[in-house]
Amino acid sequence: MSDLLRPWLPADAPIVLAAAAEPMMDRQFTSPIDSLAAAQEWIELLADRRTEDSAYSFAVLHEGVPVGNVAVSSVERRHLTGWVSYWMREEARGKGLATRACRAVSEFAFAELGLFRLELAHRLDNPASCRVALGAGFQTEGVERARLLYDGVRYDTETHSRLATD
């Protein structure tokens, strides 16, 4: 797709496994990634979702090496909407890669998938994720109270959106 994004490859499983082992990264995966086999299954799941036209995930590259993930999921054809998400490995944070990747996946969703509205949300206690959203052209829409539950604690989230016409 570019020098910034490409689909995940089976050979990326060790990178996915390492990413999942970083603090709080387990929340980024729907099931535990605690082995190379689990990482490979996750990559296969992403390929299946692409085939089903329900989600498009990309490895975010830095100097040709995957350092994060960006995706448009919950692709809904009736209303032409999708949900954007992203994560970066610790060593890649603070370099603007997440913002660039979020911008790029948004352009992909509008141009290639024909979507009109993209949404994303982040915990209120994650200002870095808010900077990514705003830097990628997403406008703030509001706060969802007690939206997420992690380890018995509820967290508010801030929702953002970007339209193809923005």
How do you describe this structure in short?
With 166 residues, this protein is α+β, with helices and mostly antiparallel strands.
Keywords for this entry:
alpha+beta, Aminopeptidase, 7-stranded mixed beta sheet, 4 helices
The CATH homologous superfamily name of the domain at 5-118 equals Gcn5-related N-acetyltransferase (GNAT)
Mean pLDDT figure? 96
Succession of helices and strands? EHHEEEHEHEE
CATH class of the domain at 5-118: Alpha Beta
Basic shape: globular
- Biggest β-sheet strands, sense, barrel: 7 strands, mixed
CATH architecture of the domain at 5-118: 3-Layer(aba) Sandwich
Strand order of the largest sheet: 1-2-3-4-5-7-6
User: Any low-confidence stretches, pLDDT <50, length ≥5?
Assistant: none
Kindly name the structural category: alpha+beta
Helical content stands at: 25-40%
Could you tell me the CATH topology label of the domain at 5-118.
Aminopeptidase
Question: What this model shows, in words?
Answer:
The protein is an alpha+beta fold and 166 residues long. The chain has a domain at 5-118: Aminopeptidase. The protein has four helices and seven strands. The chain has helices at residues 13-20, 36-51, 97-111, 127-135, and strands spanning 5-6, 56-62, 65-76, 81-88, 117-123, 139-150, 153-163. It has a seven-stranded mixed beta sheet with strand order 1-2-3-4-5-7-6, sandwiched between helices. β4, α3 and β5 (117-123) form a beta-alpha-beta unit. α1 crosses α2 and α3 (97-111) crosses α4. It starts with a strand and ends with a strand. The mean pLDDT is 96.
